[in-house]
Write a structure and sequence with these properties.
This protein has about 250 residues and is α/β, with parallel strands linked by helices. The chain contains seven helices and twelve strands. It has two domains: about 55 residues, Urease, subunit C, domain 1, CATH 2.30.40; about 180 residues, TIM Barrel. It binds zinc ion (ZN).
Length: about 250
């Protein structure tokens, strides 16, 4: 009888959110894995009282920027993954830019893995980058295990993670389709944002509001439409990140 077993840890009396549904009950855990889910009490060496608590599966955060190696002072794997764990996130997927080098080659991917190993409190996976001059690295990055690729259609705010114009974007989408991969894009028109920025700078604007004025809604909508069109033509799956407009 399963209920006569004793588990290493029992999470007792919580509202358990499971795939099939929600129930009030008990989790039996052995070797760090859920071994039993029961509405009847379970016995355990270590019992966690979860009455008045909701017990959720670990969340997966597909979009984190820990910026290590290279810009660890912005956050880093240690503090970033601890914050994730504190918030119930058990897997993070870390973005390919802001770190140095950016994850645009397998060598850079290995550097990132070395930085994460031993520091990350949670499971992790990594994004690869599509930039101006790394298309020949997409296949090896995919083979090395990145879960998807990220590109910027406008200046990324870091010099090394170059944004892609339509030629590279379309060719990248075709290559990623052939690799059964998908592309996440930061969709803003570089032409519109750069033109606005130049004019604001010429007017001597350095204030925070100028940042927003350089990025009118049309810049985002135009880029989203263009990315969707190119992805459809290429037959590649697309994900749009950092969206800020309901119309998007
Ligand atoms: Zn981001």
């Amino acid at each position: 009888m399963r209920h006569e077993l004793r588990y290493e840890t029992v999470v007792a009396g919580g509202l358990l959110v499971t795939g099939p549904g929600v129930l009030r009950g008990y989790l039996g855990i052995n070797d760090g894995r859920i071994a039993a889910i029961s509405e009847d009490p379970l016995k355990g060496d270590d019992v966690v009282d979860a009455r008045d608590r909701t017990v959720l599966p670990g969340a997966v955060d597909l979009h984190v920027h820990f910026n290590e190696p290279g810009r660890t002072d912005w956050e880093g794997w240690g503090p970033g993954s601890r914050a994730a764990a504190a918030g119930g996130v058990t897997t993070v997927v870390e973005m390919p830019l802001n770190c140095l080098p950016p994850v645009t080659t397998v060598e850079a991917l290995q550097t990132k893995v070395a930085a994460a190993e031993g520091q990350s409190m949670v499971d992790y996976a990594l994004w690869g980058g599509l930039i101006t001059d790394n298309r020949e690295h997409l296949a090896s990055l995919a083979a090395a295990g990145v879960i998807g690729f990220k590109a910027f259609m406008s200046h990324s705010s870091t010099e090394e993670f170059t944004h892609v114009e339509d030629g590279v974007l379309f060719d990248g989408l075709q290559r990623l389709r052939d690799l059964d991969q998908f592309l996440a894009v930061h969709a803003e028109s570089n032409a519109i944002t750069q033109d606005r920025m130049r004019r604001l700078q010429a007017d001597g604007r350095r204030d925070r509001m100028a940042w927003g004025e350089a990025r009118p809604p049309v810049a985002e909508l135009e880029a989203i439409h263009r990315a969707l069109f190119l992805a459809q033509q290429a037959g590649c799956r697309l994900h749009i990140v950092h969206m800020s407009l309901p119309e998007g």
